[in-house]
Design a protein that fits this description.
By secondary structure, the protein is α+β, with helices and mostly antiparallel strands. It has helices at about 20-30, 45-75, 80-95, 100-115; strands spanning about 5-10, 10-15, 35-40, 120-125. The protein is built from four helices and four strands.
């Protein structure tokens, strides 16, 4: 699995895992492609769609946090299985790198390219 290189005259280049970019393509409702280009006029809807996905993810993470805090406030006891399941979920959440973090360099590049009216392209180096 080859890395994808992203470039734009508006920002420094970076590499992204194809699985991460597949997630970006899903958010955008577009098919995955190992190479391509967004022209300046394509950038606003791409940025908007990614920002909406980031906000949805933040809302989900906040809801998980709220439920955990509520459970802790109520106290009470969990069965051994429930406690083990909750602990595994929390460990997974701590190890997981969020979509927001993974697409941060792309968002920075897209926003810089939009400001400077430049294109963004990607491909296998």
């Amino acid at each position: 699995m080859a890395l994808l290189e992203f470039r734009s005259p508006a920002a420094g280049g970076f590499f992204m895992m194809p699985t991460t970019f597949k997630g970006v393509c899903e958010v955008l409702g577009r098919p995955y492609a190992e190479s391509g280009c967004w022209m300046p006029e394509d950038l606003p809807p791409v940025i908007e769609a990614l920002e909406e996905a980031i906000e949805r993810e933040k809302a989900v993470l906040e809801e998980i946090k709220r439920r955990r805090e509520e459970r802790e406030r109520k106290g009470g006891y969990l069965s051994f299985e429930e406690e083990e399941k909750a602990q595994l979920e929390e460990e997974k959440a701590k190890e997981r790198v969020s979509f927001t973090v993974r697409v941060y360099p792309l968002m920075q590049m897209l926003q810089a390219a939009r400001k400077q009216d430049k294109k963004v392209w990607w491909g296998v180096p």
